[in-house]
Amino acid sequence: MAVPKRAPYVVVGAGIHGLSTAYHLAKELVERGLGSGADVLVLDKATPGAGASGIACGVVRNNYFQPAMSELMQACVEVWESDPEAFAYNPVGYIALGAAVQESDLTATYERQERIGYRSELIVGAAEVDAHMKRLFPDWRAQGVTICLHEHQGGFAFNVESVLGLRDKCLGEGVSLLSYTEVTGFRFGADRAVTAIETSKGEIEVGEQVVIAPGPWAARFWAMLGLPDRIDITTPSGRIVPDRPMWTYWNLQEGEITVDPLMFATADGGPPPVIHLDTDAPLCTDDGELVTDELWGIYFKRDRHGVQGGASPLVVEGDVELDPYPSTTDVDPGFPDMWCAALSHSMSRFEGCRAQYKTARSGGVGAFTADNFPVFDYFGPNLYAILDSNHGYKMIGVGREVASVLLGGHSGLLHPFRFERFATGDLHPVSSSPYPWS
Fold first, then answer.
1. Which residues contact 326 (CB under 8 A, 6 or more apart)?
2. Are 68 and 189 members of one domain?
3. Looking at the structure, do residues 303 and 403 belong to the same domain, yes or no?
4. CB hemisphere CA count around 19 (13 angstroms)
5. 368 to each of 28, 226, 247, 324, 432, how far by Cα in Å?
6. Helix/strand/coil for 174
7. pTM for this one?
8. pLDDT, tens digit, for every residue of 29-73?
9. Same domain as 381, residue 255
10. Same domain flag for 64 and 4
Protein backbone atom coordinates (compact mmCIF):
# COMPACT_ATOMS: atom_id res chain seq x y z
CA MET A 1 0.00 0.00 0.00
CA ALA A 2 1.07 3.60 -0.52
CA VAL A 3 2.25 5.65 2.43
CA PRO A 4 -0.69 7.70 3.72
CA LYS A 5 -0.11 11.37 4.43
CA ARG A 6 -1.98 11.15 7.70
CA ALA A 7 -3.26 8.51 10.15
CA PRO A 8 -5.23 8.99 13.38
CA TYR A 9 -3.48 6.12 15.18
CA VAL A 10 -0.03 4.80 14.28
CA VAL A 11 1.51 1.63 15.76
CA VAL A 12 5.22 1.08 15.15
CA GLY A 13 6.16 -2.61 15.09
CA ALA A 14 4.33 -5.66 13.73
CA GLY A 15 5.26 -8.19 16.37
CA ILE A 16 3.00 -9.60 19.09
CA HIS A 17 2.69 -6.28 20.94
CA GLY A 18 2.16 -4.04 17.94
CA LEU A 19 -0.38 -6.28 16.23
CA SER A 20 -2.26 -7.02 19.46
CA THR A 21 -2.50 -3.30 20.17
CA ALA A 22 -3.70 -2.53 16.65
CA TYR A 23 -6.29 -5.31 16.71
CA HIS A 24 -7.74 -4.43 20.10
CA LEU A 25 -7.66 -0.71 19.36
CA ALA A 26 -9.58 -1.24 16.12
CA LYS A 27 -12.21 -3.27 17.99
CA GLU A 28 -12.51 -0.65 20.75
CA LEU A 29 -12.93 2.18 18.24
CA VAL A 30 -15.82 0.37 16.60
CA GLU A 31 -17.46 -0.81 19.84
CA ARG A 32 -17.34 2.69 21.34
CA GLY A 33 -18.49 4.35 18.13
CA LEU A 34 -15.29 6.39 17.96
CA GLY A 35 -14.07 5.31 14.57
CA SER A 36 -13.10 2.20 12.61
CA GLY A 37 -10.17 -0.12 12.04
CA ALA A 38 -9.22 2.00 9.05
CA ASP A 39 -8.10 4.67 11.55
CA VAL A 40 -5.24 2.40 12.67
CA LEU A 41 -1.97 2.10 10.74
CA VAL A 42 0.81 -0.38 11.59
CA LEU A 43 4.36 0.30 10.39
CA ASP A 44 7.15 -2.28 10.32
CA LYS A 45 10.72 -2.12 9.03
CA ALA A 46 10.23 -5.64 7.59
CA THR A 47 7.12 -7.81 7.75
CA PRO A 48 4.90 -9.13 10.57
CA GLY A 49 6.88 -11.52 12.74
CA ALA A 50 10.21 -10.86 11.05
CA GLY A 51 11.76 -9.81 14.36
CA ALA A 52 11.78 -11.29 17.85
CA SER A 53 8.19 -12.56 17.81
CA GLY A 54 8.90 -14.76 14.79
CA ILE A 55 11.64 -16.77 16.51
CA ALA A 56 10.45 -16.67 20.11
CA CYS A 57 10.39 -20.02 21.89
CA GLY A 58 6.65 -19.46 22.29
CA VAL A 59 6.26 -20.45 25.95
CA VAL A 60 3.17 -19.07 27.71
CA ARG A 61 3.39 -19.24 31.52
CA ASN A 62 2.41 -17.54 34.74
CA ASN A 63 5.42 -18.63 36.78
CA TYR A 64 6.26 -15.17 38.09
CA PHE A 65 7.31 -14.33 41.64
CA GLN A 66 6.29 -10.69 41.08
CA PRO A 67 2.58 -10.03 41.81
CA ALA A 68 2.21 -7.50 38.99
CA MET A 69 3.71 -9.88 36.42
CA SER A 70 1.49 -12.74 37.57
CA GLU A 71 -1.70 -10.68 37.40
CA LEU A 72 -0.81 -9.30 33.97
CA MET A 73 0.01 -12.76 32.67
CA GLN A 74 -3.38 -14.06 33.80
CA ALA A 75 -4.97 -11.48 31.49
CA CYS A 76 -2.59 -12.47 28.70
CA VAL A 77 -3.45 -16.16 29.04
CA GLU A 78 -7.13 -15.20 28.72
CA VAL A 79 -6.35 -13.71 25.31
CA TRP A 80 -4.41 -16.81 24.22
CA GLU A 81 -7.33 -18.98 25.31
CA SER A 82 -9.87 -16.78 23.50
CA ASP A 83 -8.93 -18.18 20.07
CA PRO A 84 -6.39 -21.04 20.27
CA GLU A 85 -6.75 -21.91 16.60
CA ALA A 86 -6.05 -18.41 15.28
CA PHE A 87 -3.16 -17.95 17.70
CA ALA A 88 -1.67 -21.44 17.08
CA TYR A 89 -1.85 -21.90 20.84
CA ASN A 90 -1.29 -25.25 22.55
CA PRO A 91 -2.75 -25.22 26.11
CA VAL A 92 -0.61 -28.09 27.39
CA GLY A 93 0.26 -26.48 30.73
CA TYR A 94 3.58 -25.54 32.28
CA ILE A 95 5.63 -27.21 35.01
CA ALA A 96 8.19 -25.29 37.08
CA LEU A 97 10.49 -27.44 39.19
CA GLY A 98 12.87 -25.96 41.74
CA ALA A 99 15.54 -26.69 44.29
CA ALA A 100 15.16 -26.05 48.04
CA VAL A 101 16.32 -22.44 47.66
CA GLN A 102 13.26 -21.75 45.48
CA GLU A 103 10.60 -23.32 47.68
CA SER A 104 9.43 -20.05 49.22
CA ASP A 105 9.31 -18.31 45.82
CA LEU A 106 7.26 -21.03 44.13
CA THR A 107 4.98 -21.38 47.14
CA ALA A 108 4.25 -17.64 47.09
CA THR A 109 3.64 -17.83 43.32
CA TYR A 110 1.19 -20.71 43.78
CA GLU A 111 -0.70 -18.93 46.56
CA ARG A 112 -1.08 -15.86 44.36
CA GLN A 113 -2.28 -17.99 41.44
CA GLU A 114 -4.87 -19.51 43.79
CA ARG A 115 -6.09 -16.06 44.82
CA ILE A 116 -6.48 -14.80 41.27
CA GLY A 117 -8.11 -18.00 39.99
CA TYR A 118 -5.26 -19.30 37.86
CA ARG A 119 -5.47 -23.09 37.78
CA SER A 120 -2.38 -24.80 39.20
CA GLU A 121 -1.24 -27.24 41.86
CA LEU A 122 1.77 -27.29 44.18
CA ILE A 123 3.75 -30.39 45.10
CA VAL A 124 6.33 -30.11 47.88
CA GLY A 125 9.01 -32.62 48.93
CA ALA A 126 11.59 -34.48 46.88
CA ALA A 127 9.73 -37.83 46.99
CA GLU A 128 6.36 -36.23 46.24
CA VAL A 129 7.74 -34.25 43.29
CA ASP A 130 9.50 -37.33 41.91
CA ALA A 131 6.27 -39.34 42.11
CA HIS A 132 4.27 -36.58 40.39
CA MET A 133 6.75 -36.35 37.54
CA LYS A 134 7.04 -40.14 37.18
CA ARG A 135 3.27 -40.39 36.75
CA LEU A 136 3.67 -38.10 33.75
CA PHE A 137 7.05 -39.42 32.59
CA PRO A 138 8.03 -42.84 33.94
CA ASP A 139 11.68 -42.25 33.00
CA TRP A 140 11.91 -39.01 35.00
CA ARG A 141 15.20 -38.96 36.92
CA ALA A 142 16.10 -35.35 37.79
CA GLN A 143 17.80 -34.87 41.15
CA GLY A 144 17.83 -32.01 43.65
CA VAL A 145 14.20 -31.04 43.04
CA THR A 146 12.04 -30.41 46.09
CA ILE A 147 9.12 -28.36 44.75
CA CYS A 148 6.90 -28.42 41.68
CA LEU A 149 4.40 -25.80 40.50
CA HIS A 150 2.23 -27.43 37.85
CA GLU A 151 0.21 -24.82 35.96
CA HIS A 152 -2.79 -26.37 34.24
CA GLN A 153 -3.14 -23.24 32.14
CA GLY A 154 -0.46 -21.90 29.84
CA GLY A 155 1.57 -23.90 27.37
CA PHE A 156 3.10 -22.64 24.15
CA ALA A 157 2.24 -21.23 20.74
CA PHE A 158 3.88 -21.62 17.35
CA ASN A 159 5.61 -18.28 16.89
CA VAL A 160 5.18 -17.36 13.22
CA GLU A 161 1.66 -18.78 12.97
CA SER A 162 0.50 -16.83 16.02
CA VAL A 163 1.82 -13.56 14.60
CA LEU A 164 0.13 -14.25 11.28
CA GLY A 165 -3.08 -15.05 13.15
CA LEU A 166 -2.92 -11.62 14.80
CA ARG A 167 -2.14 -10.03 11.44
CA ASP A 168 -5.24 -11.61 9.95
CA LYS A 169 -7.36 -10.38 12.85
CA CYS A 170 -6.03 -6.87 12.24
CA LEU A 171 -6.83 -7.05 8.55
CA GLY A 172 -10.28 -8.38 9.39
CA GLU A 173 -10.92 -5.23 11.44
CA GLY A 174 -9.78 -2.98 8.58
CA VAL A 175 -6.35 -2.09 10.03
CA SER A 176 -3.74 -0.99 7.48
CA LEU A 177 -0.30 -2.67 7.57
CA LEU A 178 2.65 -1.01 5.89
CA SER A 179 5.69 -3.30 5.64
CA TYR A 180 9.30 -2.41 4.77
CA THR A 181 8.79 1.04 6.23
CA GLU A 182 11.42 2.02 8.79
CA VAL A 183 10.74 4.78 11.30
CA THR A 184 13.68 7.19 11.27
CA GLY A 185 12.43 9.95 13.58
CA PHE A 186 9.59 11.90 15.12
CA ARG A 187 8.45 15.47 14.67
CA PHE A 188 7.21 17.11 17.88
CA GLY A 189 4.99 20.05 18.60
CA ALA A 190 5.59 22.69 21.26
CA ASP A 191 4.05 20.47 23.95
CA ARG A 192 6.23 17.47 22.95
CA ALA A 193 3.26 15.77 21.32
CA VAL A 194 4.16 13.82 18.18
CA THR A 195 2.83 15.63 15.14
CA ALA A 196 4.41 13.44 12.48
CA ILE A 197 6.46 10.27 12.05
CA GLU A 198 9.44 10.31 9.70
CA THR A 199 9.88 7.07 7.78
CA SER A 200 12.04 5.66 5.02
CA LYS A 201 9.08 6.21 2.67
CA GLY A 202 8.08 9.69 3.72
CA GLU A 203 6.43 11.58 6.55
CA ILE A 204 3.10 10.60 8.11
CA GLU A 205 1.09 13.12 10.11
CA VAL A 206 -0.36 11.81 13.36
CA GLY A 207 -3.93 12.68 14.23
CA GLU A 208 -4.36 11.13 17.68
CA GLN A 209 -1.88 8.65 19.17
CA VAL A 210 1.38 6.85 18.47
CA VAL A 211 2.38 3.52 19.99
CA ILE A 212 5.91 2.18 19.65
CA ALA A 213 6.43 -1.55 20.15
CA PRO A 214 10.04 -1.98 19.00
CA GLY A 215 11.02 -5.26 20.67
CA PRO A 216 14.82 -5.56 20.76
CA TRP A 217 15.22 -2.20 19.03
CA ALA A 218 14.06 -0.51 22.24
CA ALA A 219 17.37 1.27 22.89
CA ARG A 220 17.35 2.77 19.41
CA PHE A 221 13.91 4.30 19.89
CA TRP A 222 14.86 5.36 23.42
CA ALA A 223 17.71 7.40 21.94
CA MET A 224 15.47 8.67 19.14
CA LEU A 225 13.18 10.12 21.80
CA GLY A 226 16.08 11.81 23.58
CA LEU A 227 15.70 9.74 26.74
CA PRO A 228 18.73 9.08 29.01
CA ASP A 229 20.82 5.97 28.38
CA ARG A 230 21.77 5.85 32.07
CA ILE A 231 19.45 6.45 35.03
CA ASP A 232 19.52 6.62 38.83
CA ILE A 233 17.41 3.97 40.56
CA THR A 234 15.72 4.33 43.92
CA THR A 235 15.40 1.03 45.78
CA PRO A 236 12.33 0.18 47.91
CA SER A 237 14.38 1.08 51.00
CA GLY A 238 15.08 4.55 49.59
CA ARG A 239 18.73 3.96 48.68
CA ILE A 240 19.87 5.60 45.42
CA VAL A 241 21.77 3.41 42.97
CA PRO A 242 23.34 5.94 40.58
CA ASP A 243 24.21 5.82 36.90
CA ARG A 244 22.77 2.48 35.86
CA PRO A 245 22.40 1.56 32.16
CA MET A 246 18.77 1.77 31.08
CA TRP A 247 19.32 -0.94 28.48
CA THR A 248 21.49 -4.04 28.34
CA TYR A 249 21.42 -6.79 25.73
CA TRP A 250 21.42 -10.51 26.40
CA ASN A 251 21.99 -13.41 24.03
CA LEU A 252 19.14 -15.86 24.52
CA GLN A 253 20.61 -19.33 24.72
CA GLU A 254 18.25 -21.65 22.82
CA GLY A 255 18.47 -24.65 20.54
CA GLU A 256 16.76 -27.89 19.64
CA ILE A 257 17.31 -31.60 19.14
CA THR A 258 15.97 -33.19 15.98
CA VAL A 259 14.12 -36.25 17.20
CA ASP A 260 10.67 -37.68 16.58
CA PRO A 261 8.46 -35.18 18.46
CA LEU A 262 6.21 -38.03 19.61
CA MET A 263 9.05 -39.53 21.63
CA PHE A 264 8.47 -36.63 24.06
CA ALA A 265 5.00 -37.52 25.28
CA THR A 266 3.34 -38.21 28.61
CA ALA A 267 2.80 -41.74 29.90
CA ASP A 268 -0.64 -41.90 28.27
CA GLY A 269 0.71 -40.67 24.94
CA GLY A 270 -0.60 -37.14 25.36
CA PRO A 271 1.15 -33.85 24.61
CA PRO A 272 3.65 -32.95 27.36
CA PRO A 273 3.54 -29.73 29.36
CA VAL A 274 6.33 -27.23 28.93
CA ILE A 275 8.97 -28.05 31.54
CA HIS A 276 11.24 -25.63 33.40
CA LEU A 277 13.76 -27.33 35.67
CA ASP A 278 16.01 -25.53 38.15
CA THR A 279 18.23 -27.61 40.42
CA ASP A 280 21.47 -27.45 42.36
CA ALA A 281 22.28 -31.12 41.71
CA PRO A 282 25.64 -31.59 39.93
CA LEU A 283 25.17 -31.64 36.16
CA CYS A 284 27.32 -34.06 34.17
CA THR A 285 27.38 -35.08 30.53
CA ASP A 286 26.46 -38.64 29.58
CA ASP A 287 30.22 -39.34 29.57
CA GLY A 288 30.50 -38.28 33.20
CA GLU A 289 32.19 -34.91 32.62
CA LEU A 290 31.12 -32.28 35.17
CA VAL A 291 29.33 -29.33 33.56
CA THR A 292 28.47 -27.41 36.75
CA ASP A 293 27.90 -28.02 40.44
CA GLU A 294 26.05 -24.73 40.98
CA LEU A 295 22.36 -23.88 40.56
CA TRP A 296 21.40 -24.39 36.92
CA GLY A 297 18.21 -24.36 34.92
CA ILE A 298 16.72 -25.24 31.54
CA TYR A 299 13.33 -25.20 29.84
CA PHE A 300 12.11 -27.43 27.05
CA LYS A 301 8.99 -28.31 25.11
CA ARG A 302 7.88 -30.50 22.24
CA ASP A 303 8.09 -28.78 18.89
CA ARG A 304 7.18 -29.73 15.33
CA HIS A 305 10.68 -30.98 14.53
CA GLY A 306 11.78 -32.35 17.87
CA VAL A 307 12.39 -30.79 21.27
CA GLN A 308 13.20 -27.10 21.67
CA GLY A 309 14.28 -25.03 24.65
CA GLY A 310 17.02 -23.07 26.31
CA ALA A 311 18.83 -21.90 29.41
CA SER A 312 19.71 -18.66 31.16
CA PRO A 313 20.91 -15.96 28.72
CA LEU A 314 24.30 -14.30 28.56
CA VAL A 315 25.06 -10.59 28.64
CA VAL A 316 26.12 -9.39 25.19
CA GLU A 317 29.70 -8.15 25.08
CA GLY A 318 30.35 -5.31 22.66
CA ASP A 319 28.22 -2.81 20.77
CA VAL A 320 24.80 -3.87 19.51
CA GLU A 321 23.68 -0.34 18.65
CA LEU A 322 23.75 -0.87 14.89
CA ASP A 323 22.14 -4.30 14.76
CA PRO A 324 20.60 -5.44 18.04
CA TYR A 325 18.93 -8.34 16.30
CA PRO A 326 21.32 -10.29 14.05
CA SER A 327 20.12 -13.18 11.91
CA THR A 328 21.76 -15.70 14.23
CA THR A 329 22.33 -15.78 17.97
CA ASP A 330 25.79 -15.91 19.51
CA VAL A 331 25.17 -19.06 21.52
CA ASP A 332 27.77 -19.85 24.15
CA PRO A 333 29.99 -22.69 22.86
CA GLY A 334 29.22 -24.67 25.99
CA PHE A 335 25.44 -24.31 25.71
CA PRO A 336 24.74 -27.40 23.53
CA ASP A 337 26.66 -29.65 25.94
CA MET A 338 24.98 -28.10 28.97
CA TRP A 339 21.44 -28.20 27.58
CA CYS A 340 21.67 -31.74 26.23
CA ALA A 341 23.26 -32.94 29.48
CA ALA A 342 20.38 -31.31 31.36
CA LEU A 343 17.79 -33.03 29.13
CA SER A 344 19.46 -36.36 29.86
CA HIS A 345 19.55 -35.51 33.56
CA SER A 346 15.78 -34.97 33.39
CA MET A 347 14.68 -38.10 31.53
CA SER A 348 16.46 -41.22 30.35
CA ARG A 349 14.79 -40.97 26.95
CA PHE A 350 17.10 -38.03 26.21
CA GLU A 351 20.30 -39.93 26.98
CA GLY A 352 22.70 -39.54 24.05
CA CYS A 353 20.70 -36.63 22.56
CA ARG A 354 23.82 -34.46 22.09
CA ALA A 355 24.33 -36.02 18.65
CA GLN A 356 20.91 -34.73 17.58
CA TYR A 357 21.53 -31.13 18.67
CA LYS A 358 20.79 -28.56 15.99
CA THR A 359 21.75 -24.90 16.02
CA ALA A 360 18.61 -23.04 14.97
CA ARG A 361 17.62 -19.40 14.56
CA SER A 362 15.87 -19.23 17.87
CA GLY A 363 15.75 -16.78 20.74
CA GLY A 364 17.82 -13.97 19.26
CA VAL A 365 19.00 -11.01 21.32
CA GLY A 366 16.87 -9.49 24.04
CA ALA A 367 16.83 -5.85 25.20
CA PHE A 368 16.48 -5.71 28.99
CA THR A 369 15.53 -2.68 31.09
CA ALA A 370 17.43 -1.55 34.17
CA ASP A 371 15.45 -3.97 36.39
CA ASN A 372 14.73 -6.62 33.73
CA PHE A 373 10.99 -5.94 33.76
CA PRO A 374 8.84 -4.18 31.15
CA VAL A 375 8.14 -0.48 30.83
CA PHE A 376 4.64 0.39 29.61
CA ASP A 377 4.10 4.14 29.72
CA TYR A 378 3.51 7.45 27.98
CA PHE A 379 6.63 9.40 27.00
CA GLY A 380 4.75 12.35 25.56
CA PRO A 381 1.15 13.56 25.47
CA ASN A 382 0.31 11.15 22.65
CA LEU A 383 3.29 8.76 22.55
CA TYR A 384 2.92 5.42 24.31
CA ALA A 385 5.77 2.89 24.49
CA ILE A 386 5.62 -0.89 24.97
CA LEU A 387 9.13 -1.85 26.06
CA ASP A 388 8.83 -5.48 27.04
CA SER A 389 12.33 -6.37 28.33
CA ASN A 390 12.12 -9.72 26.57
CA HIS A 391 8.94 -10.86 28.30
CA GLY A 392 7.05 -9.86 25.19
CA TYR A 393 5.86 -12.84 23.16
CA LYS A 394 3.78 -14.45 25.90
CA MET A 395 2.21 -11.07 26.84
CA ILE A 396 -0.31 -10.95 24.01
CA GLY A 397 -2.84 -9.28 26.32
CA VAL A 398 -0.76 -6.13 26.82
CA GLY A 399 -2.16 -4.80 23.56
CA ARG A 400 -5.70 -5.12 24.91
CA GLU A 401 -4.75 -3.06 27.97
CA VAL A 402 -2.89 -0.45 25.91
CA ALA A 403 -5.85 -0.02 23.57
CA SER A 404 -8.04 0.85 26.54
CA VAL A 405 -5.47 3.36 27.84
CA LEU A 406 -5.19 5.03 24.43
CA LEU A 407 -8.91 5.74 24.51
CA GLY A 408 -8.85 7.33 27.95
CA GLY A 409 -9.06 4.32 30.24
CA HIS A 410 -6.81 3.30 33.12
CA SER A 411 -5.13 -0.08 33.36
CA GLY A 412 -4.31 -1.27 36.84
CA LEU A 413 -2.41 -4.13 35.22
CA LEU A 414 -0.03 -1.81 33.36
CA HIS A 415 0.36 0.80 36.12
CA PRO A 416 3.11 -1.09 38.03
CA PHE A 417 5.27 -0.97 34.90
CA ARG A 418 5.41 2.81 34.47
CA PHE A 419 8.87 4.34 33.99
CA GLU A 420 8.43 6.42 37.14
CA ARG A 421 9.04 3.34 39.30
CA PHE A 422 12.79 3.72 38.93
CA ALA A 423 12.60 7.12 40.66
CA THR A 424 9.96 6.28 43.25
CA GLY A 425 11.37 2.92 44.36
CA ASP A 426 8.27 0.94 43.37
CA LEU A 427 10.42 -1.86 41.98
CA HIS A 428 9.38 -5.45 41.47
CA PRO A 429 10.66 -8.04 43.97
CA VAL A 430 13.53 -10.28 42.91
CA SER A 431 13.25 -14.07 43.04
CA SER A 432 15.89 -16.78 43.62
CA SER A 433 15.73 -17.92 39.99
CA PRO A 434 18.91 -17.87 37.88
CA TYR A 435 16.89 -16.21 35.11
CA PRO A 436 16.84 -12.38 34.81
CA TRP A 437 13.16 -12.38 33.79
CA SER A 438 11.85 -14.32 36.80
1. 364, 365
2. yes
3. no
4. 30
5. 31, 18, 6, 12, 18
6. coil
7. 0.94
8. 999 999 999 999 999 999 998 888 888 889 999 999 899 999 999
9. no
10. yes
